[in-house]
Amino acid sequence: MSDKHFKTLPQEFQNEECEKYYSIIKSRYFAYILKRIFDYLVGLILLILLIIPIAVIAIIVKCGSKGPVMFRQVRVGKYGKTFEIFKFRTMITEQPKGATQITVGDDPRITKAGKVLRKYRLDELPQIFNIIKGDMSFVGPRPEWTATTEQYSQNLPEFLFRLKVKAGLTGYAQVYGK
Q: Is residue 61 predicted with pLDDT exceeding 90?
């Protein structure tokens, strides 16, 4: 581990698996600056173009069930920094006893509007705000829950390197996983 900056990374990133990817990312520094400019500008343009559909969806969510329009959750981004991710709320706010945090199939907690929003991934539109703010990018690994990243450092240190780049709205797993 020869690079001086590499040694300033959080301790859990200082391993051989991460060092391989670190050198690749370091060699593309200018590309990452351009990517941030692209994310910001395209995010602003999309926000302007989609402000009316976003407002309509917000009204539908609010009228469809009790609770806030937005769902916020703490996720882990670049270098393990946490941020609040924004989504349209697709589930009821009153959780039945014994309910899990993970939703599968026809989970009865999903609202009628939520089923449509999830099917077409419209619940993710508010993440444009995360992109403009700089917490996320359009393309990158999906942001993880804190519990998941804690498992990375304990069991799979090579996966920690996904925290070296900004989390994304879409990525390889979303394109090829479903």
A: yes
